[in-house]
Automatic annotation (TrEMBL):
InterPro entries: DUF1129. Keywords: Membrane, Transmembrane, Transmembrane helix. Residues 1-45 are annotated as: Disordered. It holds the Pfam family DUF1129. This is DUF1129 domain-containing protein. The chain crosses the membrane at residues 128-145, 157-175, 187-208, 220-240. Residues 16-41 have a biased composition (Basic and acidic residues). The keyword Transmembrane applies. Signal peptide: none annotated.
């Protein structure tokens, strides 16, 4: 009886495997068929989001390369099959290329230039300095106008600085999580749990820094001083980006080209 049950389970498993292989074969066949389809037909299959991407890409090719409309269209025709294939698998063009139309156009016009992805630590420092400037600067401005609010109710400089830095690093990491790599994307449950864990950690950290015993190293500074610190942080960020040739967004930075 047990042997028959085992045989039945094995048969079901084999059937499931065969069904998965059949579906994968059909997907691969459809992808292969798209590679040989006419560009005009492929354009009709583009989603609204991908149509906009291709349209802006063609405009950038015309602008950057001084190309005619026909020449720009001919260049984007060569990308349509891979865009539509990626679209079938739930990946838009900006996720496929990890580049805006402006950057993608530059890569297409100068293919001999090798692209090098900005290292995580450089993007993390860039994001940390940006959020440090935003957090400290924002609370500095608020402090200038909140003359009636008691000083003890405001956040200390260590709280503002640490939360800003941690948020900047987290946003860079979050971008890495949500942007597909090698066709894979972090699962939604894992993403939500990670975000929740970081939020809890931040609240605990803020609570620790608000304890009276910590006040001596976490003073509440005048608004003008906060603004000066924010300006210094932003200036340091500017110099850092110049030194490492970082361009584009802090969280989806433009690859360096060599």
């Amino acid at each position: 009886m047990a042997e028959k049950e085992q045989e039945k389970n094995n048969s079901n498993i084999n059937a499931e495997k065969q069904e998965k292989l059949k579906k994968q074969s059909e997907v691969d066949a459809k992808d292969e068929e798209l590679k040989n389809e006419d560009p005009k037909t492929l354009r009709q299959k583009l989603s609204n989001k991908n149509q906009d991407y291709v349209f802006r890409l063609e405009k950038e090719l015309q602008r950057q390369g001084s190309l005619s409309h026909e020449e720009a269209v001919a260049m984007t025709d060569g990308l349509l099959s891979e865009i539509v294939i990626a679209q079938r698998h739930g990946q838009p063009a900006n996720g496929l290329y990890l580049a805006s139309p402006k950057i993608k156009a530059e890569e297409m016009l100068h293919p001999e230039q090798k692209t090098v992805e900005t290292p995580f630590w450089q993007r993390a420092v860039d994001g940390a300095l940006l959020y440090l400037a935003i957090f400290v600067g924002l609370f500095g401005v608020i402090a200038l106008f909140e003359t009636k609010q008691p000083q003890n109710s405001q956040m200390g400089i260590l709280t503002l600085a640490s939360v800003g830095i941690l948020m900047g690093v987290f946003m860079v990491k979050y971008n890495d999580w949500v942007m597909p790599k090698n066709g894979q994307r972090i699962g939604l449950p894992k993403l939500l749990l990670s975000g929740l864990g970081i939020a809890v950690a931040l609240f605990i950290w803020i609570w620790i820094l608000s304890l009276p015993a910590i006040r001596v190293i976490n003073p509440v500074l005048p608004g003008a001083v906060d603004i000066v610190i924010a300006a210094i942080a932003y200036g340091a960020r500017y110099l850092f980006r110049q030194h490492y040739h970082i361009t584009g967004s802090s969280f989806a930075s433009r690859p360096q080209r060599k």
